Amino acid sequence: MPDGPAAASLPWLVPPAYDASAASLAAHSEAIGEVMAGRARLWLGPFPAPDRLPAGLEDTALVVPTSGSTGTAKAVALGLAALRVSQDATAQLFAADGTAPDSRGHGFWLPLLPPTHIAGVQVLARAHRTGQVLGLPGPALPDPLPDLRGHFDAAAFVELAGPVLEQAERAGLPAMTSLVPTQLTRIVTGATGDDARARGLLKRFAAVLVGGAATSTDVLARARGQRIPVRTTYGSSETAGGCVYDRRPLPGVSLSVLDPDESGAGRLRISSPTLALGYLTEGGGTDGGVFAGASPSADWPAADAAVSGAVVSCESADRAFLTSDLAEIGDDGALTVLGRADDVINTGGRKVLPQDVERAIDRSLMLRGLVRTSVVVGVPDPEWGQRVEALVTLEEGTDPAEASALVRSALRTTEVPAHMIPKRVHVVEELPLLGIGKVDRAAARRLAGG
Description:
2 domains, alpha/beta, 22 strands, Rossmann fold, globular, six-stranded mixed β-sheet, 450 residues, GMP Synthetase, Chain A, domain 3
């Protein structure tokens, strides 16, 4: 993409609202292809595109919404260089670790996520990048593209995955896909014949990315035990998608913790050439938000330079993104995300990380096969300020009337302190989710009565 005024003169593409049909997916893929070729910019923001971009954001190639887990959308402006470096860093990892050594780390992608958020956009963009780097006549995508309307389950996956694996084999490329934890959980834990067939197909993929939210340790263990090549990812719109794979930063990404406490936990800070240019506000304004340092400078990779697939070391980038996540970084460099700083529950002056309670529920042997998923929230309490409550979904056959007693009793047998045990446990059919499969904690608080 050209720099400065030339980039700002490129047209905005605004596809019709995504409806999960094959035609709609194709329209978004075509628009993403134009962006990847440097011929246009793509607007997927939560408000209309401004007539003019503010200073410092002229090189914007893609605008996507982001909502964290609060449900309040913002517009994130990303440059083409950041998108390409992100894609090439993933490919560099996959080439080096044996996932896709014969295709320079690039693959044939089955898109199963909506192309309205960064994760779904990057699946399509990676397929276009495969075509660019390997000199293919088009993107490495299924023909025809899948129709994703309707409920995602094992039967739907079997119908889609079989033909895709055949097409990938004919193209001489490793098959890859990306799922949210809910999709992976349905396939891994299902007991039908379709579930078994889906697992058999999924393990034929070279890489199955899973992100957007924390994945149950039990589900990950079962998936890997079934020889499904799951790769956990961590990232956000602000980092052009996943920048940490299997708890390790991608090439060119640097992680640090701001103001760590005695245990080493603190706000996670990310330095990377994949960072967004910044935030856009309605009406054409900008919000620097939690980005620190100068805007991308001339030593960042230009779009044309990035075509070679090189990953620029983050030592050449002086910008950083301060996330809302509390994290620890081990001596081996492995990242452990503990939860969001703004999710912390203050009950009677004691702080509770909801994710600590959720992990205890997930790991409890007493609840294995009884509780499927959980989310823990704080709701207002006149005496304690906030009280801890939980929403759970149950496995088939579990008596909802016994769920609260089961969860509370199970947690009492763990190291979870009494003040962290939910005062109430609400049984729901499904946890409230945002569009990318992330738990909507604001909606969960409302359901719990907060």
